[in-house]
Protein backbone atom coordinates (compact mmCIF):
# COMPACT_ATOMS: atom_id res chain seq x y z
CA UNK A 1 0.00 0.00 0.00
CA UNK A 2 1.07 3.59 -0.61
CA UNK A 3 -0.76 5.25 2.23
CA UNK A 4 -2.59 8.45 1.29
CA UNK A 5 -2.06 9.89 -2.18
CA UNK A 6 -3.94 11.58 -5.01
CA UNK A 7 -4.56 9.16 -7.85
CA UNK A 8 -4.26 9.95 -11.57
CA UNK A 9 -8.05 10.47 -11.54
CA UNK A 10 -7.69 13.33 -9.03
CA UNK A 11 -9.35 11.43 -6.18
CA UNK A 12 -7.72 10.82 -2.81
CA UNK A 13 -6.78 7.20 -2.12
CA UNK A 14 -5.83 5.23 0.96
CA UNK A 15 -3.72 2.32 -0.30
CA UNK A 16 -5.81 0.71 -3.05
CA UNK A 17 -9.14 2.30 -2.11
CA UNK A 18 -10.75 5.62 -3.01
CA UNK A 19 -11.52 7.56 0.16
CA UNK A 20 -14.87 8.64 -1.33
CA UNK A 21 -15.81 4.97 -1.80
CA UNK A 22 -14.87 4.31 1.82
CA UNK A 23 -17.03 7.27 2.90
CA UNK A 24 -19.98 5.83 1.01
CA UNK A 25 -19.37 2.43 2.54
CA UNK A 26 -18.97 3.39 6.23
CA UNK A 27 -21.70 6.06 6.16
CA UNK A 28 -20.53 7.68 9.43
CA UNK A 29 -18.67 10.98 9.62
CA UNK A 30 -16.21 12.14 10.76
CA UNK A 31 -13.96 9.09 11.13
CA UNK A 32 -10.28 8.29 11.43
CA UNK A 33 -8.97 6.22 8.53
CA UNK A 34 -5.65 4.32 8.75
CA UNK A 35 -3.43 2.53 6.29
CA UNK A 36 -2.33 -0.66 8.03
CA UNK A 37 0.57 -1.00 5.57
CA UNK A 38 1.92 2.45 6.42
CA UNK A 39 2.24 1.51 10.08
CA UNK A 40 4.09 -1.64 9.04
CA UNK A 41 6.49 0.28 6.83
CA UNK A 42 7.12 2.94 9.49
CA UNK A 43 8.05 0.17 11.92
CA UNK A 44 10.20 -1.54 9.28
CA UNK A 45 12.10 1.72 8.77
CA UNK A 46 13.13 1.71 12.44
CA UNK A 47 13.88 -2.00 12.40
CA UNK A 48 16.20 -1.76 9.41
CA UNK A 49 17.81 1.44 10.76
CA UNK A 50 18.70 -0.56 13.89
CA UNK A 51 20.37 -3.44 12.04
CA UNK A 52 23.45 -4.41 14.03
CA UNK A 53 22.47 -2.35 17.07
CA UNK A 54 21.32 -4.13 20.21
CA UNK A 55 18.12 -2.25 20.90
CA UNK A 56 14.55 -1.95 22.11
CA UNK A 57 11.99 -0.03 20.07
CA UNK A 58 9.56 1.28 22.66
CA UNK A 59 6.52 2.60 20.83
CA UNK A 60 5.03 5.57 22.75
CA UNK A 61 1.46 4.38 23.25
CA UNK A 62 0.24 7.90 24.11
CA UNK A 63 0.54 8.76 20.40
CA UNK A 64 -2.13 6.21 19.49
CA UNK A 65 -3.57 3.48 21.70
CA UNK A 66 -5.84 1.70 19.24
CA UNK A 67 -5.58 -1.98 20.18
CA UNK A 68 -5.37 -3.13 16.55
CA UNK A 69 -2.37 -0.88 16.03
CA UNK A 70 -0.80 -2.05 19.29
CA UNK A 71 -1.32 -5.72 18.37
CA UNK A 72 0.19 -5.14 14.95
CA UNK A 73 3.31 -3.52 16.44
CA UNK A 74 3.61 -6.08 19.25
CA UNK A 75 3.45 -8.95 16.74
CA UNK A 76 6.44 -7.42 14.94
CA UNK A 77 8.55 -7.46 18.12
CA UNK A 78 8.02 -3.86 19.15
CA UNK A 79 8.13 -2.77 22.80
CA UNK A 80 6.00 -0.11 24.49
CA UNK A 81 6.55 3.15 26.36
CA UNK A 82 3.78 4.06 28.79
CA UNK A 83 2.82 7.00 30.92
CA UNK A 84 -0.06 5.72 33.04
CA UNK A 85 -1.24 2.61 34.83
CA UNK A 86 -4.03 2.21 32.30
CA UNK A 87 -1.62 2.36 29.37
CA UNK A 88 0.52 -0.22 31.18
CA UNK A 89 -2.48 -2.53 31.69
CA UNK A 90 -3.47 -2.14 28.04
CA UNK A 91 0.06 -2.94 26.84
CA UNK A 92 0.25 -6.07 29.01
CA UNK A 93 -3.19 -7.14 27.78
CA UNK A 94 -2.01 -6.79 24.19
CA UNK A 95 0.97 -8.99 25.05
CA UNK A 96 3.96 -6.63 24.99
CA UNK A 97 6.85 -8.35 26.81
CA UNK A 98 7.68 -6.75 30.17
CA UNK A 99 11.39 -6.68 29.22
CA UNK A 100 10.46 -4.35 26.35
CA UNK A 101 8.21 -2.06 28.39
CA UNK A 102 9.28 1.27 29.88
CA UNK A 103 7.10 3.14 32.36
CA UNK A 104 7.62 6.89 32.20
CA UNK A 105 6.19 9.95 33.86
CA UNK A 106 6.69 12.76 36.33
CA UNK A 107 3.65 11.92 38.45
CA UNK A 108 3.43 8.15 38.60
CA UNK A 109 1.06 7.09 41.37
CA UNK A 110 2.04 4.64 44.13
CA UNK A 111 -0.50 2.04 42.94
CA UNK A 112 0.70 2.40 39.34
CA UNK A 113 4.29 1.85 40.50
CA UNK A 114 3.33 -1.24 42.51
CA UNK A 115 1.68 -2.61 39.38
CA UNK A 116 4.77 -1.80 37.27
CA UNK A 117 7.17 -3.42 39.73
CA UNK A 118 5.03 -6.54 39.90
CA UNK A 119 4.91 -6.71 36.09
CA UNK A 120 8.70 -6.43 35.96
CA UNK A 121 8.90 -3.55 33.51
CA UNK A 122 11.66 -0.93 33.34
CA UNK A 123 10.80 2.25 35.24
CA UNK A 124 12.18 5.72 34.57
CA UNK A 125 12.88 7.72 37.74
CA UNK A 126 11.82 11.35 37.37
CA UNK A 127 12.43 12.96 40.77
CA UNK A 128 13.33 12.43 44.42
CA UNK A 129 9.75 11.68 45.45
CA UNK A 130 9.29 9.40 42.46
CA UNK A 131 12.38 7.46 43.58
CA UNK A 132 10.99 7.13 47.11
CA UNK A 133 7.68 5.86 45.72
CA UNK A 134 9.46 3.32 43.51
CA UNK A 135 11.52 2.08 46.46
CA UNK A 136 8.39 1.72 48.58
CA UNK A 137 6.54 -0.09 45.78
CA UNK A 138 9.45 -2.52 45.40
CA UNK A 139 9.50 -3.20 49.15
CA UNK A 140 5.74 -3.69 49.23
CA UNK A 141 5.69 -6.05 46.25
CA UNK A 142 8.88 -7.81 47.36
CA UNK A 143 10.53 -7.50 43.95
CA UNK A 144 13.54 -5.49 42.82
CA UNK A 145 12.62 -2.47 40.68
CA UNK A 146 14.79 -2.02 37.57
CA UNK A 147 15.17 1.67 36.94
CA UNK A 148 16.64 4.21 34.53
CA UNK A 149 17.31 7.76 35.68
CA UNK A 150 15.63 10.35 33.47
CA UNK A 151 18.24 13.04 32.94
CA UNK A 152 17.33 16.56 31.89
CA UNK A 153 20.25 17.34 29.55
CA UNK A 154 19.26 20.98 28.92
CA UNK A 155 19.25 20.68 25.12
CA UNK A 156 16.93 22.88 23.05
CA UNK A 157 14.89 20.74 20.63
CA UNK A 158 13.80 23.92 18.73
CA UNK A 159 10.10 23.05 18.83
CA UNK A 160 6.86 24.54 20.21
CA UNK A 161 7.31 25.14 23.98
CA UNK A 162 4.39 22.83 24.79
CA UNK A 163 6.21 19.86 23.27
CA UNK A 164 9.70 20.72 24.55
CA UNK A 165 10.73 18.59 27.53
CA UNK A 166 14.50 18.64 27.97
CA UNK A 167 15.27 22.26 28.77
CA UNK A 168 16.48 23.45 32.18
CA UNK A 169 13.03 24.76 33.19
CA UNK A 170 11.12 21.62 32.20
CA UNK A 171 9.06 19.73 34.77
CA UNK A 172 10.62 16.46 33.57
CA UNK A 173 13.71 14.66 34.76
CA UNK A 174 16.75 15.13 36.95
CA UNK A 175 19.23 17.96 36.59
CA UNK A 176 22.95 17.40 36.80
CA UNK A 177 23.19 19.05 40.21
CA UNK A 178 20.71 16.56 41.69
CA UNK A 179 22.18 13.38 40.21
CA UNK A 180 24.49 12.51 43.13
CA UNK A 181 21.52 12.29 45.53
CA UNK A 182 20.11 9.39 43.46
CA UNK A 183 23.43 7.61 43.06
CA UNK A 184 24.11 7.73 46.81
CA UNK A 185 20.66 6.31 47.62
CA UNK A 186 20.66 3.53 45.02
CA UNK A 187 24.17 2.41 46.02
CA UNK A 188 22.92 1.27 49.41
CA UNK A 189 19.45 0.15 48.31
CA UNK A 190 18.87 -3.55 47.65
CA UNK A 191 15.35 -3.23 46.18
CA UNK A 192 16.25 -0.74 43.40
CA UNK A 193 18.66 -1.64 40.62
CA UNK A 194 19.98 1.12 38.36
CA UNK A 195 20.20 -0.32 34.83
CA UNK A 196 20.32 2.73 32.59
CA UNK A 197 19.89 6.38 31.79
CA UNK A 198 17.11 8.09 29.88
CA UNK A 199 16.51 11.44 28.23
CA UNK A 200 13.71 12.76 26.07
CA UNK A 201 14.13 16.20 24.52
CA UNK A 202 10.74 16.92 23.02
CA UNK A 203 8.60 16.15 20.04
CA UNK A 204 8.40 17.15 16.33
CA UNK A 205 12.21 17.42 16.15
CA UNK A 206 13.44 17.92 12.60
CA UNK A 207 17.23 18.11 13.05
CA UNK A 208 19.22 15.03 14.01
CA UNK A 209 22.12 17.18 15.29
CA UNK A 210 19.94 17.78 18.32
CA UNK A 211 19.89 14.06 19.08
CA UNK A 212 23.65 13.88 18.59
CA UNK A 213 24.29 16.73 21.04
CA UNK A 214 22.05 15.10 23.61
CA UNK A 215 23.62 11.67 23.09
CA UNK A 216 27.07 13.16 23.66
CA UNK A 217 25.91 14.75 26.90
CA UNK A 218 24.29 11.46 27.94
CA UNK A 219 27.54 9.68 27.15
CA UNK A 220 29.30 11.85 29.77
CA UNK A 221 26.58 10.98 32.25
CA UNK A 222 27.01 7.25 31.52
CA UNK A 223 30.74 7.51 32.21
CA UNK A 224 30.16 9.44 35.42
CA UNK A 225 27.60 6.91 36.70
CA UNK A 226 29.76 3.94 35.73
CA UNK A 227 32.69 5.49 37.57
CA UNK A 228 30.57 5.24 40.72
CA UNK A 229 30.39 1.47 40.25
CA UNK A 230 27.04 1.03 38.50
CA UNK A 231 26.82 -1.48 35.65
CA UNK A 232 24.58 0.32 33.23
CA UNK A 233 22.94 -1.68 30.45
CA UNK A 234 20.59 0.76 28.69
CA UNK A 235 20.85 4.16 27.08
CA UNK A 236 17.36 5.44 26.33
CA UNK A 237 17.42 8.45 24.00
CA UNK A 238 13.64 8.93 24.07
CA UNK A 239 11.45 9.72 21.07
CA UNK A 240 10.74 12.94 19.27
CA UNK A 241 11.52 12.50 15.57
CA UNK A 242 9.27 14.81 13.55
CA UNK A 243 7.39 14.10 10.34
CA UNK A 244 6.68 16.16 7.23
CA UNK A 245 3.43 17.86 8.25
CA UNK A 246 3.91 20.61 5.66
CA UNK A 247 3.93 18.51 2.48
CA UNK A 248 6.17 21.02 0.70
CA UNK A 249 8.75 18.47 -0.36
CA UNK A 250 11.24 19.30 2.40
CA UNK A 251 13.71 16.53 3.18
CA UNK A 252 13.40 15.54 6.83
CA UNK A 253 15.61 13.14 8.78
CA UNK A 254 14.59 9.50 8.65
CA UNK A 255 14.83 6.88 11.41
CA UNK A 256 18.08 5.78 9.76
CA UNK A 257 19.51 9.31 9.99
CA UNK A 258 18.55 9.37 13.66
CA UNK A 259 20.06 5.98 14.51
CA UNK A 260 23.22 6.68 12.51
CA UNK A 261 23.99 9.72 14.68
CA UNK A 262 24.12 7.60 17.84
CA UNK A 263 25.14 4.18 16.51
CA UNK A 264 28.91 4.43 17.16
CA UNK A 265 28.49 6.04 20.52
CA UNK A 266 26.22 3.30 21.80
CA UNK A 267 28.52 0.59 20.43
CA UNK A 268 31.54 2.21 22.09
CA UNK A 269 29.76 2.28 25.44
CA UNK A 270 28.55 -1.32 25.02
CA UNK A 271 24.97 -0.32 25.80
CA UNK A 272 21.57 -1.48 24.60
CA UNK A 273 19.92 1.43 22.79
CA UNK A 274 16.32 2.20 23.73
CA UNK A 275 14.25 4.52 21.57
CA UNK A 276 10.73 5.77 22.22
CA UNK A 277 9.15 6.82 18.91
CA UNK A 278 5.49 7.75 18.89
CA UNK A 279 4.65 10.26 16.15
CA UNK A 280 7.11 8.91 13.56
CA UNK A 281 5.59 5.43 13.93
CA UNK A 282 1.94 6.31 13.34
CA UNK A 283 1.27 9.93 12.30
CA UNK A 284 1.51 9.44 8.53
CA UNK A 285 -0.69 6.33 8.58
CA UNK A 286 -3.95 8.19 9.13
CA UNK A 287 -6.33 10.89 7.94
CA UNK A 288 -9.30 12.36 9.71
CA UNK A 289 -12.09 12.12 7.13
CA UNK A 290 -14.77 14.81 7.47
CA UNK A 291 -17.85 15.91 5.59
CA UNK A 292 -18.40 19.53 4.52
CA UNK A 293 -21.48 20.92 6.27
CA UNK A 294 -21.42 24.17 4.36
CA UNK A 295 -19.39 27.11 3.09
CA UNK A 296 -19.83 30.66 4.38
CA UNK A 297 -18.29 34.08 4.12
CA UNK A 298 -18.59 36.82 6.73
CA UNK A 299 -17.51 39.51 4.31
CA UNK A 300 -13.86 39.39 5.40
CA UNK A 301 -13.16 35.74 5.46
CA UNK A 302 -14.31 32.51 3.86
CA UNK A 303 -15.00 29.45 5.93
CA UNK A 304 -15.44 25.79 5.16
CA UNK A 305 -17.47 24.31 8.02
CA UNK A 306 -16.96 20.58 8.53
CA UNK A 307 -18.39 18.04 10.98
CA UNK A 308 -15.02 17.31 12.60
CA UNK A 309 -13.83 19.81 15.19
CA UNK A 310 -11.33 20.62 17.93
CA UNK A 311 -13.08 17.87 19.91
CA UNK A 312 -12.06 15.36 17.25
CA UNK A 313 -8.58 16.74 16.51
CA UNK A 314 -7.13 19.41 18.80
CA UNK A 315 -3.54 19.85 17.60
CA UNK A 316 -4.16 22.98 15.47
CA UNK A 317 -6.07 24.67 18.32
CA UNK A 318 -3.67 23.64 21.06
CA UNK A 319 -0.25 24.00 19.43
CA UNK A 320 -1.06 26.10 16.38
CA UNK A 321 0.05 22.94 14.55
CA UNK A 322 -0.18 22.79 10.77
CA UNK A 323 -1.81 19.67 9.38
CA UNK A 324 -2.32 19.39 5.66
CA UNK A 325 -5.90 19.57 4.42
CA UNK A 326 -7.30 18.45 1.10
CA UNK A 327 -10.58 17.52 -0.54
CA UNK A 328 -11.23 13.90 -1.40
CA UNK A 329 -12.52 14.62 -4.94
CA UNK A 330 -11.05 16.58 -7.88
CA UNK A 331 -11.76 20.31 -7.99
CA UNK A 332 -14.84 21.49 -9.86
CA UNK A 333 -15.37 24.90 -8.19
CA UNK A 334 -13.27 28.03 -7.70
CA UNK A 335 -10.10 28.02 -5.58
CA UNK A 336 -10.41 30.44 -2.66
CA UNK A 337 -8.69 31.11 0.63
CA UNK A 338 -10.52 29.47 3.54
CA UNK A 339 -10.33 28.80 7.23
CA UNK A 340 -11.46 25.24 7.84
CA UNK A 341 -13.52 25.19 11.02
CA UNK A 342 -15.71 22.87 13.07
CA UNK A 343 -19.11 23.30 14.73
CA UNK A 344 -17.81 23.71 18.31
CA UNK A 345 -18.70 26.94 20.11
CA UNK A 346 -15.15 28.34 20.37
CA UNK A 347 -13.12 30.55 18.08
CA UNK A 348 -10.25 28.17 18.75
CA UNK A 349 -12.19 25.52 16.86
CA UNK A 350 -10.25 25.39 13.59
CA UNK A 351 -8.48 22.60 11.75
CA UNK A 352 -6.61 24.87 9.38
CA UNK A 353 -6.23 28.57 8.63
CA UNK A 354 -5.70 30.41 5.35
CA UNK A 355 -5.81 27.39 3.10
CA UNK A 356 -6.22 27.72 -0.65
CA UNK A 357 -8.84 25.14 -1.44
CA UNK A 358 -11.40 24.43 -4.11
CA UNK A 359 -14.84 25.67 -3.02
CA UNK A 360 -16.52 22.41 -2.01
CA UNK A 361 -20.15 21.40 -2.32
CA UNK A 362 -22.17 20.49 0.75
CA UNK A 363 -21.46 16.87 1.58
CA UNK A 364 -17.99 16.83 0.00
CA UNK A 365 -15.19 14.91 1.73
CA UNK A 366 -12.35 16.86 3.37
CA UNK A 367 -9.40 15.20 5.08
CA UNK A 368 -6.89 16.35 7.66
CA UNK A 369 -3.74 14.36 6.93
CA UNK A 370 -1.06 12.97 9.25
CA UNK A 371 -3.65 12.37 11.94
CA UNK A 372 -2.30 9.08 13.33
CA UNK A 373 -0.44 10.56 16.31
CA UNK A 374 -1.89 12.61 19.19
CA UNK A 375 -5.20 13.10 17.39
CA UNK A 376 -7.60 10.32 18.43
CA UNK A 377 -5.77 9.95 21.78
CA UNK A 378 -6.41 13.65 22.47
CA UNK A 379 -10.02 13.67 21.27
CA UNK A 380 -12.61 14.83 23.80
CA UNK A 381 -16.38 14.90 23.96
CA UNK A 382 -16.57 18.69 24.28
CA UNK A 383 -19.97 19.99 23.11
CA UNK A 384 -20.91 16.29 23.20
CA UNK A 385 -19.18 15.88 19.87
CA UNK A 386 -18.11 12.32 20.62
CA UNK A 387 -14.75 10.71 19.69
CA UNK A 388 -15.42 9.08 16.32
CA UNK A 389 -14.97 5.59 14.90
CA UNK A 390 -11.66 4.38 13.50
CA UNK A 391 -11.23 2.22 10.39
CA UNK A 392 -8.23 0.84 8.65
CA UNK A 393 -7.53 -0.32 5.14
CA UNK A 394 -6.18 -3.86 5.30
CA UNK A 395 -5.35 -5.10 1.82
CA UNK A 396 -8.46 -4.35 -0.25
CA UNK A 397 -10.79 -4.15 2.72
CA UNK A 398 -11.97 -1.49 5.12
CA UNK A 399 -12.36 -2.68 8.70
CA UNK A 400 -13.82 -1.01 11.74
CA UNK A 401 -11.03 -0.96 14.36
CA UNK A 402 -12.74 1.17 17.02
CA UNK A 403 -16.39 2.00 17.55
CA UNK A 404 -17.46 5.60 17.94
CA UNK A 405 -18.41 6.78 21.39
CA UNK A 406 -22.06 7.68 21.67
CA UNK A 407 -24.45 9.68 23.81
CA UNK A 408 -25.49 6.35 25.35
CA UNK A 409 -21.96 5.99 26.76
CA UNK A 410 -22.45 9.34 28.48
CA UNK A 411 -25.92 8.45 29.74
CA UNK A 412 -24.53 5.19 31.14
CA UNK A 413 -22.33 7.25 33.47
CA UNK A 414 -25.47 8.45 35.25
CA UNK A 415 -27.38 5.20 35.25
CA UNK A 416 -28.55 4.05 38.65
CA UNK A 417 -27.14 7.08 40.50
N1 LIG B 1 9.06 9.46 25.29
C1 LIG B 1 8.63 10.39 26.16
C2 LIG B 1 9.18 10.41 27.51
C3 LIG B 1 7.68 11.34 25.77
O1 LIG B 1 7.27 12.27 26.62
C4 LIG B 1 7.17 11.31 24.44
C5 LIG B 1 6.17 12.27 23.99
C6 LIG B 1 7.64 10.30 23.57
C7 LIG B 1 8.60 9.42 24.02
C8 LIG B 1 7.17 10.20 22.14
O2 LIG B 1 7.55 11.31 21.41
P1 LIG B 1 7.28 11.36 19.82
O3 LIG B 1 8.20 10.36 19.15
O4 LIG B 1 5.88 11.02 19.59
O5 LIG B 1 7.60 12.75 19.44
N2 LIG B 1 0.60 16.04 21.99
C9 LIG B 1 1.76 16.59 21.33
C10 LIG B 1 2.97 15.71 21.51
C11 LIG B 1 3.30 15.43 22.95
C12 LIG B 1 4.50 14.55 23.09
C13 LIG B 1 4.66 14.11 24.48
N3 LIG B 1 5.75 13.23 24.71
C14 LIG B 1 1.42 16.82 19.87
O6 LIG B 1 0.29 16.56 19.46
O7 LIG B 1 2.26 17.29 19.11
TrEMBL record:
<dbReference type="InterPro" id="IPR000183">
    <property type="entry name" value="Orn/DAP/Arg_de-COase"/>
</dbReference>
<comment type="function">
    <text>Specifically catalyzes the decarboxylation of meso-diaminopimelate (meso-DAP) to L-lysine.</text>
</comment>
<dbReference type="InterPro" id="IPR009006">
    <property type="entry name" value="Ala_racemase/Decarboxylase_C"/>
</dbReference>
<keyword id="KW-0456">Lyase</keyword>
<comment type="pathway">
    <text>Amino-acid biosynthesis; L-lysine biosynthesis via DAP pathway; L-lysine from DL-2,6-diaminopimelate: step 1/1.</text>
</comment>
<dbReference type="InterPro" id="IPR002986">
    <property type="entry name" value="DAP_deCOOHase_LysA"/>
</dbReference>
<dbReference type="GO" id="GO:0009507">
    <property type="term" value="C:chloroplast"/>
</dbReference>
<keyword id="KW-0028">Amino-acid biosynthesis</keyword>
<protein>
    <recommendedName>
        <fullName>diaminopimelate decarboxylase</fullName>
        <ecNumber>4.1.1.20</ecNumber>
    </recommendedName>
</protein>
<feature type="modified residue" description="N6-(pyridoxal phosphate)lysine">
    <location>
        <position position="62"/>
    </location>
</feature>
<keyword id="KW-0663">Pyridoxal phosphate</keyword>
<dbReference type="Pfam" id="PF00278">
    <property type="entry name" value="Orn_DAP_Arg_deC"/>
</dbReference>
<dbReference type="Pfam" id="PF02784">
    <property type="entry name" value="Orn_Arg_deC_N"/>
</dbReference>
<keyword id="KW-0210">Decarboxylase</keyword>
<dbReference type="InterPro" id="IPR022653">
    <property type="entry name" value="De-COase2_pyr-phos_BS"/>
</dbReference>
<comment type="similarity">
    <text>Belongs to the Orn/Lys/Arg decarboxylase class-II family. LysA subfamily.</text>
</comment>
<dbReference type="InterPro" id="IPR029066">
    <property type="entry name" value="PLP-binding_barrel"/>
</dbReference>
<dbReference type="GO" id="GO:0009089">
    <property type="term" value="P:lysine biosynthetic process via diaminopimelate"/>
</dbReference>
<dbReference type="InterPro" id="IPR022657">
    <property type="entry name" value="De-COase2_CS"/>
</dbReference>
<feature type="domain" description="Orn/DAP/Arg decarboxylase 2 N-terminal">
    <location>
        <begin position="37"/>
        <end position="283"/>
    </location>
</feature>
<dbReference type="InterPro" id="IPR022643">
    <property type="entry name" value="De-COase2_C"/>
</dbReference>
<dbReference type="GO" id="GO:0008836">
    <property type="term" value="F:diaminopimelate decarboxylase activity"/>
</dbReference>
<feature type="active site" description="Proton donor">
    <location>
        <position position="345"/>
    </location>
</feature>
<keyword id="KW-0457">Lysine biosynthesis</keyword>
<feature type="domain" description="Orn/DAP/Arg decarboxylase 2 C-terminal">
    <location>
        <begin position="35"/>
        <end position="372"/>
    </location>
</feature>
<dbReference type="InterPro" id="IPR022644">
    <property type="entry name" value="De-COase2_N"/>
</dbReference>
Amino acid sequence: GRGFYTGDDGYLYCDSLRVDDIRAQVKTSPFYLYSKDTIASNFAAYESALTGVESIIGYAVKANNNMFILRQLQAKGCGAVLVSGNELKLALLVGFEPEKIIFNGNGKLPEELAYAVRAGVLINVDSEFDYENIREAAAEVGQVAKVLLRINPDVDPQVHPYVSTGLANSKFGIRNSHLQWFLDRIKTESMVELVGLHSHLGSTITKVDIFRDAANIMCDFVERVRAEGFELKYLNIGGGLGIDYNHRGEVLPTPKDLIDTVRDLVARLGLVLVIEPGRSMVATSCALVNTVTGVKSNGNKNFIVIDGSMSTLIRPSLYDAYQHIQLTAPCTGKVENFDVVGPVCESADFLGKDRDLCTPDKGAGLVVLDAGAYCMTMASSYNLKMPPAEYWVDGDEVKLIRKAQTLDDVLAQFEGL
